[in-house]
Amino acid sequence: MSIDLSPVLAFLACRTPLSWCEQAVISQDILLLDHAHCEKKAASTAITLLFRYPEYEDLVYKLSRLAREELRHFEQVITLLKKRHIPFRHLPPSRYAAQLHKLVSTHEPARLVDVLIMCAFIEARSCERFASLLPYLDAELAEFYGGLLASEARHFELYLKFARAYAKFDISERIAAFRQREKELIESPDSVLRFHSGVPESAEVVSV
What we know:
Blueprint: H1 6-11, H2 18-25, H3 28-52, H4 57-83, H5 96-101, H6 110-133, H7 139-166, H8 172-187, E1 189-190, E2 199-200
Helix pairs in contact: 3-4, 4-7, 6-7, 6-8
C-alpha cells in the first residue's frame, strides 16, 4: 500500500538519523520488545484521555477506537516476539516521552491541547521510523511495519485535528516548541536504543 508521508515529514523537524537505523537493525530484539511497550502505552494514553475528558464526546469516541487499534497492534507485536523466541519482559523506556511531557501545560484547556500536540508528534515519529526502517528489515518485519504506516499517519492526523479544534488560541507556537524539543531528542546522543530514542552514543547525525 502506498502512503503519502509528506504531511508527517512536513510536521517533523528532522528525519531519523542513519546511525539509529543501523543500530536498530542489529538490535531487533530490543526494538521489537520496545515496540510492544509503545503500542501498549499508546492504548493506555488514549484510554486515560477519554476518562479525563468525558465532556469531549467526539474525542472520546475516536480515542476509544484508537485504543482498540493500538491494542491490536500490541497483540501483533507479541505474536512476532513469540515467533522469534523473544521473551516479553519489562524494558525501561527512553527519555523521549518523558522529556516531551515536560513541555505540557499544567492548566486547562492548554493542558489538553499540549497533550494532543505531544501525541501527534509521537505518532508522526512512529510513522517516520517505520518508513525509515523498511529498507533494512527482513521480509516479514518489513511487511508488518509497512502495514502500520497508514494507521500511524491517521493517528497523527487525528491528534493534530483535535488539538486545533479544542484550542482557544493559535497553537502554532506550541507546535513549534514541541517540534524543536522533539528534534533535539532525536538528534542528540542517547544511552539506550529504543523505538523513539536519539542517536546511539558516539555516532554522527546523518539522516536517512
